[in-house]
Each structure stands twice: as structure tokens, then as C-alpha cells.
TrEMBL record:
Transmembrane segments: none annotated. Keywords: Oxidoreductase. PROSITE patterns: ADH_SHORT. InterPro entries: NAD(P)-bd_dom_sf (IPR036291), Sc_DH/Rdtase_CS (IPR020904), SDR_fam (IPR002347). It holds the Pfam family adh_short_C2. This is NAD(P)-dependent oxidoreductase. It comes from Alkanindiges hydrocarboniclasticus. GO terms for molecular function: oxidoreductase activity, acting on CH-OH group of donors. Belongs to the short-chain dehydrogenases/reductases (SDR) family. The keyword Lipid metabolism does not apply. The keyword Cytoplasm does not apply.
Amino acid sequence: MNNMVSDYPKGAPAQEQTHQPGDQDAMYPAPEIIKASHKGSGKLDGKVALISGGDSGIGRSTAVLFAREGADVAIIYLDENDDAAQTKKLVEHEGRRCLTIQQDVGDNDGVKKAVEQVIQQLGKINILVNNAGVQYPQEDLTDIDNEQLERTFKTNIFGMFNITRAVLPHMQEGDSIINTTSITSYQGHDQLIDYASTKGAITTFTRSLSTNLMKQQRGIRVNGVAPGPIWTPLIPSSFDAEQVAKFGKDTPMGRMGQPSEVAPAYLFLASDDASYITGQIIHVNGGSIVNG
């Protein structure tokens, strides 16, 4: 699972994938899923988490870490069946239940059915991690056609609305929603104009929903994580081999991050350690200061 990571301490060899959002099994080196040094301490005992995009990358790492801390996990994924099966295996290895559901988050009716399935099989949802996303680099704004624009927004932000609306009626005081935004929400990206725009919307959605739920006095916290360059299947499936070989080397730390280095931020926000935190974004980006 973690072999080969140390062979490329700062980056990855040139590689590409042709299908979004990408397959983790085809990546080399394999992304690091969880730090061997992490010893579970029951921070999420008795909890159930639903993670969109939980089949690979940050979603998989978060699923496995949550399981190590005592949570049962459900994941929603697009069509990466092999990756989803591997995530299920890793979660079950931690002694927890894992429900895998193939579902496009942009399909509102399908999402409702998926949430009902989680409730029926796992009994509840205490933690929602909105993590599913796609990106399609283009050199010029005029190269972003309506089909791409709609797909990016439908997955990245409409999907977040769809899942959150379906899950909220099942959540109770003390439960938590965590949204994956991005450093591009704060810095922009010249080749990811539509993607960065959705991430800006996600940041605002996070802040607005947190305020809304506080005013309703429901006791549900809403926060976000803004990763920088993290080694996930989205990278080789988005950029050409030359760009992949340089990925993350322009950060202050001089390297890309691993999913295992992002997942603890989700764990913190999901746990009672973050009981006085809502409406905030944690930046896991290798040292870039964004002041957001």
C-alpha cells in the first residue's frame, strides 16, 4: 500500500491517465494512504461517515483514517469499481463496516437514494465529507465549452448541494460537515478557471451554511479543507506527463503532498477536538500562505 513512496520523496515520474477522475491503482508511486505511526484512539467511536469521492486519493485516506478511529464508513464514487473495492477492503481491515455506492453526485435523485441506502444499512450519518471533484485543464477560457463547464459545476458544487440537502435531515447536534475546497479558491489557476471557480463557490458555501446552521441552533458544524498539490488520481488524469513530473515542486516545501498528510485535517474537524470550530478552512498546501 505504501511501497515506493520513499523512492520519490519530492515528486513522481512522468505519467498520464486518460479517464477522469482517475484510477489510484495505476499510479506510481502509490499514494500514501495512512501514516504507519498513526495509532487510533477512538476519536470517532460509534460514528458513521459518508464520503463522496471516497474510493481514492484524499477520500480513501480519510475513509481509512476514520475507520482506524472507530467510524463505519460509506463512500460514493463515480465508476472506479476497483478503487472502491480496495477502499472497502482497507476500511474492513480496520475492523469497521464499509458501504460502497456507485453514484454520480450530480444526479440529485440518485444521491437521495444513495443517502437512504446509507441510513438503511448503517443506521445514521454523523459526518459528511463532500470530496468528489473533477478538473479539466484548458489553456484559454474560450476552450471551456458548455459541456465541460456544466460537468465541472455539476460535480463539484451542485453535487455538494445535492448530498448535503439529502443528509442534513438525518444529522443531529454534534455532527459535522467537511467540504473539500482548494488552494485554487484563494490563488486561482490559469489552466483551471472553471475548477477554481467551483472551489471558490465551495469556500463560500462552507461559510454560508455554517452561519445558517448556527442561526438555526442545530449544533452542526461546517468546515472545509483546502489542499494544495496532493498526489491523487486526479493529477495524472488531468495533466500531461511533463506537468506531472513537476507536480508540487513549486511549493515552499518543494514537494507534493500525500493523501496521508491531508486526512488528519478531516479527522480533526470531524472529532470533538474541533467542537468550537465552524465556518473555517484548514490549509494543507506545503507552506503557501493564502490568508483566507
